[in-house]
Amino acid sequence: MTTHEVEEMLDITKKMLIYYENEGLVKPLRDNNNYRCYNQDDVSKIKFILLLREMDVTIEEIKQIINKKKSIRDVLENKKDLIKQRQLDLDHIDEKINNYIKRKKVKIAVDNVLDYGTIYDRLYFYKDFLQYFQTEIKYSDVKCFKLSMSSSIGYMKFMEVHMNYYVDLDVITQYDTYSFQIMNNEVVYQMMERIKAYPLEDPLGLVDIYLNKRDMVQLNQYINRHFRKWAKEYHLDNPRDSIIRRYK
């Protein structure tokens, strides 16, 4: 991507891109005409930097995170403590920190392909590790993958309710827990292929369901038939029941 394309996509100035480059945070390649050329890793890193800057993380702290001298969670927790100590009016920063720590909506990718048009961030599944922004999670560090499911209302027509279903993934390591909501159901089976060999907590049997039902229509019909029972048994959020109660 060109500098202008990155400016447009991330709403960032050329001056700021050059500043991050001078600070050693991003290193775009140069083409034959000496123009900067940003690849997938550069774009992901800039998005990561912008997110941390919104949470009042300093450039020096970002350098330490990128160089793996500090963890993101430690920096953010210290930032929350600092807000409390100074009793500053920084509720918006505190809210951003809390939002970062909670479950993240992502699209998954097993191949190293970047979808510039998506509004969701990417969780990459590589051979030996997972990657979310600049956070790498080695499979060897994973104690357990926890799988569950959530739903949202797609559309309503008269009394007919269409539901969207998503897989919730918790990656539990010896250091931390990372929580994601998978937004592209059509490739979830690829994720299941990767994680099925590792310790799992999968009370709904989602690994088998997704690996055995590759057809999306068949998959959605199956989930639609069983989700209400799952929601009741495993205390899952079921907005469809709320709508039905409203119209009774």
UniProtKB/TrEMBL annotation:
Q: Which GO terms describe its molecular function?
A: DNA binding; DNA-binding transcription factor activity
Tell me the ranges covered by the HTH merR-type domain, including all copies. 1-68
Keyword Transcription on entry: yes
Which keywords accompany this UniProt record?
A: DNA-binding, Transcription, Transcription regulation
Spell out the Gene3D superfamilies in the cross-references: 1.10.1660.10
In its keyword annotation, does this UniProt entry include DNA-binding?
A: yes
- Domain of life from the UniProt record: Bacteria
- Which InterPro entries would you find in this protein's record? DNA-bd_dom_put_sf, MerR-type_HTH_dom, MerR_fam
Q: Where are the transmembrane segments?
A: none
Provide the protein name: MerR family transcriptional regulator
- Organism encoding this protein: Faecalibacillus intestinalis
